């Protein structure tokens, strides 16, 4: 206690946050870093002391399946995040146009956020089932499609289906943040732009968008922070299949870790996934700071 | 206190009741003991647990279910427990095909369970529960797949005539897997109706490929555990799946199907033939859950080119942990829930008991009640278990082996690789894995 | 003077916003160009645009609603009707059996929904409250104090959230089992607190930055202690920021699956999303039952969101943007 008193107030205020992060994130990560240098197998606890140094990493980097999964993960994240941003922006702009019943609209807009990703996985797996799924049913009955489209099998379609599920689940986060941005937006510059004879499109491009950019990056950062949640969706919808066509680092490492019980190897893979997530987050964080600075300069 | 007389009389009453009840409570040999168990959860498995209170009453012990999860989650949980070294329960739900992974925490049951109790069980299943001379588990019920067919499709006069005209044979449920392929292609009218279907991912497709391989005279491994499934028999087996998929006789989504998709597909009335588990029998014939209710036929699994039937099987079971603090109580409980009465409870729901006496009694019951469908189902599945059943190799690496094989099988099925190439690649992976695990030293 | 007015006083951009917005609304209900059709020279064009917007909003809302409504609808339909793709207009395909089954009033054993619900509620609410308390302390420290490595610490804190749950699940499990935290509510709560602290710190930090230091300083001059000044002046002004951080934290905890499925095992600790898996067995998935439980999970979250969404928007607006 005495030691605690000696600390400066800011340190005392920050202490709880860092203690809990240390306990739940930092220590476990150090532990898994260690195991990634061992031949640790879940069902043989004694193997945790069997240090193999870089063997897991070498095996990993020499594995073409892993690199495919890595590339696919980057592609998936990029595509999904950007589409969510675009749809979220469109949605926010639309809702912002409506003056009456906006409270209701905003609640509807956030409706998909209430769905746990694991549920979204089951839901879209059922909807996209080629034989009994509702999507094919609608296409066949109303749009005259005569074949059963294998949504979860054909490689582009499977990717598309996964992206659909993820986008449906998470676009709301973008929409709500961007809507908040639009609401905070000063009207004067827009007014001025209109007086100067800008078309609505030009006004959007040169006035609204720059103001919104920090919000866009905040949303991007937040989403890239928890995009790992998409694992639940992918795991249930395709679990990386068929024929590895939708294999992402997460599904690959979960299978290696729990089913094959090769934890050392799986943790090596996880580490790459962690670094990837961090890279995405840092990237958007930088962008965010840059656009904040820009906004502050304009403001001043 | 206001209601003191009431409290007093209550105390008196309970003392009285306790004296009355006590003799029976004392009779329980495990009075006051709490048996901690991990049981497999889910609709198919939980009705059995309704007998637990009976055992509690009989012995005075309490059963605490510390975890109740689906098979795959339970598997992960057991592995986590092994990893953390904290095994604070006595009994857990096991499965013959996965038991080898948990050998380190499992007790040999031979000293605990009398031989005459074990002798009541199907010898083949007991043999499948024994690894390196240790009896690791007492089986509860068995799973094997037999062929369900949609009678509507087979009784349809137009179908009959067309089939006869095309192949010069009468349309009848198939006896060989080649017949299945021929009929499946004949029935298929995608996207509204399919000839057959198969599970296309995870252990499900490895298992289906494996049983086809055996029926075609092949084997996964030679006796030194070198993979041999890329043999001509292997290629022929895989080609069966590839050919049906390419021809559109199975749903295009099959590579992403697992068991629930298959069951739902057949129940929706859009599939003619379905090799599936016994647990579905009541589901398929229940108008509340199935469109084919009343039109379900069942026959033995067809034969492969070697004349053998397919018969990939396994049994759900119970095991006792090494760290169990009261193995006697655990064994008593184990024998209670795998006893005759308990097995009858499951048998009446259509599950295949592992005790031969329960098998016979259940069959007699169905016959007496004139339940022809259930009698048929039961006979078919019992015959399958008795004559055709085989498990995958009972090695701890089975799951890993399967995970190396199935993505390659899928690649062949969806056309990314030829069958030979896919099997060669899978064999290479499996060999590396087995080498890693120390089999070739 | 209301708190938001106080903020607005110090924030010229927002003051401008509010001036131009119609009075009465608690929130600036901003609108685009079609707000003043009278001034527009081409009335038909404006009308067309307005209806165009309405049509687009309608289509967008349908796209958002349908997949979710489909789940909610299935909760009231029989499994066989769903699988056989019976028309959704066939009244016979509707039933309350799924809910009866879920609550154990039908012929199946049912699942302990009530226990799961209570667990979910306890875990989500407790972890949210703690995360917000910690976030409040942390956010305040970042906003009000100057210290070394501030930026690094801040980014470090944020990055801790970027670690995917799947990478954490096993190590957390093993450490938790050493600490005896497996299958306890406390164990799950601690993990959720850690998940939600970074974002809470961020939002709250941004919020306090918007509140001028001078206000609290003035209160201190008037004889308040720093502690009193915080609670009486700064805290009330940060309310909507805290509310929006709280709703995000709550939703995250309420819907989290990957970690909860590892850390909870028995009826005493399993949360609702983990309970969804009770409907999957080795061979079957009871889709209708799952949908019924899904409805039970979604409704409370939806009501909560509807109530607090005003604060949510306000909180997100003011917090986080300015660096």
Automatic annotation (TrEMBL), chain A:
Keyword Flavoprotein: no
Membrane topology: Multi-pass membrane protein
Membrane-spanning segments: 12-34, 66-95, 107-128, 157-182, 203-222, 268-285
Signal sequence, renumbered to the chain: none
UniProt keyword Iron, yes or no: no
Compartment(s) where it occurs, according to its Swiss-Prot or TrEMBL record: Cell membrane
Pfam families according to UniProt: BPD_transp_1 (PF00528)
ABC transmembrane type-1 domain span: 70-284
Keyword annotations of the record: Cell membrane, Membrane, Transmembrane, Transmembrane helix, Transport
Family to which this protein belongs: Belongs to the binding-protein-dependent transport system permease family.
PANTHER family according to UniProt: ABC TRANSPORTER PERMEASE PROTEIN (PTHR30193), INNER MEMBRANE ABC TRANSPORTER PERMEASE PROTEIN YCJO (PTHR30193:SF37)
Name of the protein in its database record: Sugar ABC transporter permease
From TrEMBL, chain B:
Signal peptide: 1-27
Keyword list, A-Z: Signal
Family matches, as CDD domains: PBP2_TMBP_like
InterPro entries in UniProt: Bact_solute-bd_prot1 (IPR050490)
UniProt protein name: Sugar ABC transporter substrate-binding protein
Species in which this protein is naturally found: Silvimonas amylolytica
